[in-house]
Design goal:
alpha+beta, 5-stranded antiparallel beta sheet, 5 strands
């Protein structure tokens, strides 16, 4: 009689414990579109700087719309990009305003999402009558560790099917697309 040692079954780790599978916020973009340049746009930039402790960047109109009184290359919006822990804090406050409920149409195919807030004072900023009340758009870009390898210009590597995070977040039953 020979005592054969059977190999042990490999230990299967759950996907949730893998640190490469964790989603994180790459960036959070806050945009206030006023529709005109001047004092209102300057006050909107003050609101963004109060919220993020960063200076906003002014966005220009792409083309002239006579009915709205917008000329091409006129500054009509202000936006800022927030990363790191500050992005998580602002997103938490913004989702509290929306009561943590978003429509399916707020998500795109890759899992990124955006929504609007009607009044900036709902985010915890004190109301100032000299500034007024502004609405804003919040857009969140999600990512995983290693996503940069597929996006960089030099030594590009495609990430595998298990690194995709798009439609599984939205709840669709279709397979993710691999159009690159």
């Amino acid at each position: 009689m020979t005592d054969e040692v059977k190999p042990a079954l490999p230990v299967v780790k759950s996907k949730e414990s893998n640190p490469m599978r964790r989603l994180k916020i790459e960036k959070l973009v806050l945009n206030i579109c006023v529709g005109e340049s001047g004092d209102r746009l300057f006050r909107a930039s003050k609101v963004l700087s109060q919220l993020t402790d960063q200076e906003g960047v002014y966005g220009k109109a792409r083309y002239t719309v006579r009915t709205f009184g917008i000329r091409r290359n006129e500054q009509i919006s202000v936006y800022t990009t927030v990363r790191g822990q500050k992005a998580y804090d602002i997103l938490d406050r913004a989702l509290r305003v929306k009561e943590f409920e978003l429509h399916e149409s707020n998500f795109n195919n890759t899992g990124n999402f955006g929504f609007g807030i009607d009044e900036h004072i709902d985010l915890g900023i004190k109301y100032d009558p000299a500034v007024g009340i502004y609405g804003m758009d919040v857009y969140v870009v999600l990512g995983r560790a290693g996503k940069r390898t597929a996006m960089k210009k030099r030594k590009m590597v495609s990430s595998g099917i298990n690194a995709e995070y798009g439609e599984s977040l939205v709840g669709s039953t279709t397979a993710p697309s691999h159009d690159r």
